[in-house]
From TrEMBL:
Keywords: Cell membrane, Membrane, Transmembrane, Transmembrane helix. It is found in: Cell membrane. One of its GO terms (cellular component) is plasma membrane. This is Chromate efflux transporter. The gene is chrA. It holds the Pfam family Chromate_transp. It comes from Paenisporosarcina cavernae.
Length: 393
């Protein structure tokens, strides 16, 4: 098969997933396995499981990183880029259109937007419930999560969250270092360790230098690059956990209001693809079309650099017990940070009256008990919110 044919195949498969993959990161991994392992047979279950383990180990959007990794295995670096484009761009365009429509009205005093803010409460609560079962299965990790939540609320800064994650990793090394780790499998790649080292240098170089030059280059586009690259580099736990970090970067600085932020987060539940595409919505508010494009690229660039930097060394890293132990502590802290985000800003900003909390309960029940698709719950909640606004104001 020619390279052109391979590239077309990657773009076709990933775009199909980008248009149909509703339900969040866990559901995305199920869609990927069905499409890439079962249907197309591009890789087997052992390699797929190892890619999932790697992407859960790295910061960033795990499901997107799995898709990018599969694209890299199939078509090299270009294949990874095409896989990302197909899976990401559909939801980016939808959220940019949503942001544009909100900007034209200049008002958030409508019931359906309040419904989007309320459904964000239910979606984050559902994510917290699901993550806690797998990431905090014992008393020590539950304790780490509670402490992390408390500290995240008391120290509401991005650097505070980074410190929480680092301390939780140290706890994991101390407490879980003697537990056994599974064997790794060989992952075929078209690039090697030299490319990996270069990617690591670029990753850390941008992470350090962008904040240094931001006060000097006082341009909106540079601020967008700095904010979204930094958040995309340090967030563990995927799209739901990125919420508090982004909120503290763009709302207090005046790029957009809290109502606009939460409305976008609610809308992100109604579209397929990764939640990191919220960056397209926020970038549209911050700098129009070009701002959205810059925000999306900056948000996902760390994922590419981390994958290129880590994949050639993964067979070695995978067998290190201390690294796996640190990850257990970090994942527990992620649950705590998400718990803090559920309270502030999600709950405190969306629930102001009794009827708001009733709608939260309805949305949560539809998601968790009746297993209704998130996009459908978003639609139902938005309609109920609009009706409430029309009849009760």
């Amino acid at each position: 098969m020619t390279k052109k044919k391979i590239y077309q195949e990657i773009l076709q498969a990933s775009t199909k997933l980008g248009l149909t993959s509703f339900g969040g990161p866990t559901a995305h991994l199920g869609y990927f396995r069905e499409e890439y392992v079962e249907k197309r047979k591009w890789l087997d279950d052992k390699v797929y499981a190892d890619l999932v383990a790697l992407c859960q180990f790295l910061p960033g959007p795990a499901s997107s990183q799995v898709g990018i990794s599969i694209g890299m295995l199939r078509g090299g670096l270009i294949g990874g880029i095409l896989s990302w484009i197909g899976f990401t761009i559909p939801s980016v365009l939808l959220l940019m259109l949503f942001a544009w429509s909100i900007m034209q009205t200049g008002s958030f005093d409508s019931g359906w937007i309040q419904g989007l803010k309320i459904v964000a409460v239910a979606v984050v609560a559902q994510a917290l419930l699901g993550m806690s079962k797998s990431l905090t299965p014992d008393k020590p990790r539950i304790t780490v999560a509670v402490i992390a939540a408390s500290l995240a609320l008391l120290i509401p800064t991005a650097w505070g969250q980074i410190s929480i994650i680092l301390l939780a990793g140290l706890f994991g090394v101390f407490f879980y270092r003697k537990e056994a780790v599974p064997e790794a499998v060989d992952i075929p790649l078209s690039f090697g360790k030299k490319a990996g080292i270069l990617a690591w240098i670029l990753f850390f170089g941008l992470l350090v230098l962008l904040p240094v030059f931001r006060p000097i280059i006082q341009q909106t586009w540079f601020s967008i690059v700095d904010i979204f690259y930094r958040v995309g580099s340090i967030v563990f736990g995927g799209g739901h956990v990125v919420l508090p970090m982004l909120e503290r970067e763009v709302v207090p600085t005046g790029f957009l209001g809290e109502e606009a932020f939460l409305a976008g987060y609610g809308a992100a539940q109604a579209v397929p693809g990764p939640l990191f595409t919220l960056s397209g919505y926020l970038g549209q508010f911050m700098g129009g079309f070009s701002g959205a494009a810059i925000a999306v690229v900056a948000m996902f660039l760390p994922s590419f650099l981390l994958l290129v930097g880590t994949l050639p060394f993964w067979s070695i890293i995978r067998t290190k017990p201390r690294i796996q132990a640190a990850l257990k502590g970090v994942n527990a802290a992620v649950v705590g940070i998400l718990l803090a985000a559920l309270y502030d800003p999600v709950f405190t900003s969306a629930v102001t009256e009794m009827k708001d909390f009733v709608l939260v309960l309805v949305s949560f029940t539809l998601l968790v008990v009746y297993k209704m698709a998130p996009w459908l719950v978003v639609l139902v909640t938005a309609v109920i919110g609009a009706l409430q606004y029309a009849f009760w104001g």
